[in-house]
Amino acid sequence: MAVIDFQTAPGVEFLENYLSKKSYIVGYEPSTADVDTYAAVKAPQANTPNLLRWYNHIKSFTDKERTQFPKKKSDFSSAPASAPKPTDDDDDVDLFGSDDEDDEEKERIKQERVKAYAEKKATKKVIIAKSSIVLDVKPWDDETDMKQLETQVRTIAMDGLVWGASKLVEIAFGIKKLQIMCIVEDDKVSVDALTETIQEFEDFVQSVDIAAFNKI
Question: Is 160:184 a contact under the CB 8 Å cutoff?
Answer without folding.
Answer: yes
